Amino acid sequence: MKHFYFIYLLLLLLVLLVVTSCDSGDVHEVYRFKSTGRTALLTGSVDEWEELPEGYNIALAAFGSTSDYALGQRILSASDVESGRLRVELSQLSDTVHTVELCVTNTLRKKTLSLQRLELASLPAQDTVRLESALRALTSASCLQKGFFDEACIRCHGGGNQSARGLNLTEGHSMAMLVNVPAASHPELLRVSGGRPEESLLHQILAESGQDVLHINHVEILHKLGVDTDVLRTFIDEWIKSLPPKDSNS
Ligand code: HEC
Questions:
Q1: Cα distance between residue 243 and residue 246, in whole Å
Q2: pLDDT for 27
Q3: Which of 51, 151, 175, 205 is least enclosed, having the fewest CB within 10 Å?
Q4: Where are the domains of the chain?
Q5: How far, in Å, is the centroid of ligand 1 from the Cα of 163?
Q6: Helix, strand, or coil here: 129?
Q7: With a 6 A CB cut-off, is 165 part of the ligand 1 pocket?
């Protein structure tokens, strides 16, 4: 009989142990998701979408402090826009991420043009880093406008009081003044000749050998932009190739 009492007591103890451990609340803690890095969230209103030339993408990308190659990126696609609203997330940002950027990258994830930039060190330590897109159109033209003309060109071409050679490169003017328009300085050339990069004055003044084509050295201006100039030149050439030639317009 003594044995039965002992086993009964042991069972009772076991039941008590199980019940109290379930009650403690620790069980729920185990299942709580713990993120190891920050998440970047890009939102914005978008009313135009177009594929960039092959080999280039618009991306939300994370960069370290020394390299132009993205540590991680989330390529934007048409399906990220729903009822005119863009929403894209890049999660698990590691500690080595210095900036999160809306940018154009090439197939090697190399930065081609920076469109918007957030430095993480300047932000309070929070899980989600938010970026509101300033681009309403996600197209080659809008990327060139924001990342290139606005940054490097408009101070002499339409941004202040002057438009050198009558060329205004500010938003809403740049494309109409460039594409298939004869150059003022070289009337035999088009500023941008649709489909023909080499025959475009823009290509020639930005080429490494183009410092003497105009009275102002535009190659130097290109180098000051801070991105890989060869990658950017190729992107500009690919964009020119994608444009319709002058003949088909007239
Ligand atoms: C420091 C001022 C300055 C900046 C910055 C500048 N330009 Fe110019 N640009 C000029 C001047 C001045 C001319 C006229 C030079 C000449 O006639 O020889 C010119 C001429 C041009 C022309 C030829 C226009 C024509 O019809 O002949 C093009 C194309 C051009 N610039 C594009 C650009 C682009 C693209 C950028 C930005 C990467 C840029 N420029 C930045 C001053 C500037």
A1: 9
A2: 40
A3: 51
A4: 38-138, 140-249
A5: 9
A6: strand
A7: yes
For CA atoms 87, 93, 97, 98, give the dihedral sign: positive
Atom number of ligand 1 nearest to Cα 166:
26
Calculate how far, in angstroms, residue 43's C-alpha sits from the geometric centre of ligand 1: 34
93-105 burial, b at 16+ Cβ within 10 Å, e below that, comes to: beeebebbbbbbb
pLDDT digit string, tens, across residues 4-31: 566 666 666 565 554 444 444 444 444 4
Would you say the CB of residue 225 lies under 6 angstroms from ligand 1? no
pTM: 0.85
pLDDT in tens, 153-207: 999 999 998 999 999 999 999 999 999 999 999 999 999 999 999 999 999 999 9
For 92-132, how does the pLDDT look when each residue is reduced to its tens digit (9 = 90+)?
998 899 999 999 999 999 999 999 999 998 877 777 899 99
Write out pLDDT tens, residues 65-94: 999 999 999 999 999 999 999 999 999 998
Tell how far the Cα of 211 is from the centroid of ligand 1, in angstroms. 11
The protein residue whose alpha carbon is closest to atom 30 in ligand 1 is 202
Closest residue by Cα to residue 191 from 204, 209, 207: 204
Q: Is 109 in the pocket of ligand 1 (CB under 6 A)?
A: no
Q: How far is the CA of 23 from the centre of ligand 1 (A)?
A: 74
